[in-house]
UniProtKB/TrEMBL annotation:
Residues 243-376 form the GGDEF domain. Its cofactor is Mg(2+). This is diguanylate cyclase. One of its GO terms (cellular component) is plasma membrane. One of its GO terms (biological process) is cell adhesion involved in single-species biofilm formation. Its EC number is 2.7.7.65. GO terms for molecular function: diguanylate cyclase activity. InterPro entries: Diguanylate_Cyclase, GGDEF_dom, Nucleotide_cyclase, Rev_trsase/Diguanyl_cyclase.
Length: 376
């Protein structure tokens, strides 16, 4: 490559970094370009330069430049000046990003792009900028956390988490927004830039998978995993409210012979029937699950421990009050055994209470079935 001084002495008088090029080939350049000449991104941008055009290019160090090109007719070449990108150039670049973005200072929007306006159903970018605060988008539920995050960002320059939160569009719809926040310098002062992605579909899928992971598909009740993961918290909450607690295990008698005599589909219907009956017989405060093949567990508050046996008896009778009739009209007498225990405040653990209820159930089975046994 010839040096600028040899062929185009005027190039060295230019205060900016300057290149003379033809169809992407650099003919000469002035000082100060250094490693930039090996930058593939820059070279391919030069190939696309049109006379009078300004192009934005990010070099491999992440620095944004504005390329300003003019034709040099006598050499059939193009003179391109590399100007440090101005604030407006940065705005121009991000205004067209497909990712929704808002720059704000204490939630007052300073800059945003069309993708953000579209995502939240604003008519225009200027409508977003007229907002005094993004609070209405964030929503009251997340507002305290949003403020805390802002303070953390201003203090540490970054937030070590990517959040997914429900946000509110101006047309009243809600969306699951994934937020990536960072601090940048905006008009000489720090501001927060938030990138927003709509992950509503993915979140709905995650919620669906979570529900599936905790639900028994046959009865629609919670499954064993849900029961054991929620029991501890359930007991703690009820204890905090001063409630006593009972655990009831319910197991169908001779269920194997129902399957053997009438087939598994009828057995399935029996389980569904029991699940429905249980839902109807217990109040909404109960934690109810199918924890095994033909075994159900019920954890529920009771007003007083003296009522334990009476409560269990009432549930048993209410469940049995509606006879089982299969889809094909087959009526079967279904009996079940019940083991009950109480939660002993302060001295109990979940495995201990479960073991007692299981022992009570075992006793009910061994004493002839179709009965309730309590261990206090
Ligand atoms: N139809 C159907 N059967 C199931 C399901 N899960 C487990 N089972 C059956 O439930 C039966 C349980 O049998 P056992 O454990 O011997 O209990 P049981 O016959 O009820 O006897 P006792 O509990 O002692 O009264 C087995 O035959 C399992 O195949 C299910 O989802 N659907």
């Amino acid at each position: 490559m010839q040096s600028a001084a040899d062929t185009n002495p005027w190039m060295s008088w230019l205060p900016e970094k300057a290149l003379l090029h033809r169809r992407g080939q650099i003919l000469s350049h002035n000082l100060g370009l250094g490693g930039l000449l090996e930058d593939a991104n820059l070279l391919s941008s030069l190939g696309r330069c049109q006379s009078g055009e300004r192009q934005l290019v990010v070099d491999r160090d992440g620095v944004l430049w504005c390329l300003s090109s003019q034709a040099v007719p006598e050499q059939e070449a193009m003179l391109t000046l590399m100007l440090p990108a101005a604030h407006q150039d940065l705005q121009q670049l991000i205004a067209h990003l497909p990712t929704a973005l808002v720059v704000h200072r204490w939630f007052k929007p300073l800059f945003t792009n069309q993708a953000f306006a579209d995502l939240f159903h604003f008519d225009s970018v200027s409508e977003v900028l007229e907002l005094d605060s993004l609070r209405s988008i964030i929503g009251e539920e997340h507002w305290p956390m949003a403020q805390e995050n802002y303070r953390t960002l201003m203090k540490h320059g970054r937030l070590d988490k990517i959040q997914v939160e429900e946000h509110h569009a101006v047309n009243g719809t809600r969306l699951q927004a994934q937020l990536v926040d960072f601090v940048l310098n905006w008009d000489g002062e720090p501001a927060v830039c938030t990138l927003v992605s709509n992950v509503s579909t993915q979140q709905a899928k995650i919620e669906q998978y979570k529900r599936m992971a905790f639900t028994d598909p046959l009865t629609g009740l919670g499954n064993r995993r849900r029961f054991f993961e929620h029991s501890e918290g359930f007991i703690q909450r009820s204890a905090a409210q001063g409630s006593s607690m009972m655990l009831l295990l319910l197991d169908v008698d001779h269920f194997k012979s129902i399957n053997d005599q009438h087939g598994h589909p009828v057995g399935d219907e029996v389980l569904q029937h029991l699940g429905n009956r249980l839902v109807q017989c217990v109040d909404s405060e109960a934690l109810l699950a199918r924890i095994g093949g033909e075994e159900f567990a019920l954890l529920m508050p009771v007003p007083a421990m003296s009522l334990l046996a009476e409560r269990a008896e009432r549930i048993k009778q209410e469940i049995g009050a509606e006879p089982f009739v299969s889809y094909h009209g087959l009526q079967l007498p279904i009996t079940f055994s019940v083991g009950v225990t109480r939660w002993r405040p302060g001295e109990d653990s979940l495995p201990a209470i479960y073991r007692r209820a299981d022992n009570a159930l075992y006793r009910a089975k061994s004493m002839g079935r179709d009965r309730i046994e309590c261990i206090y």
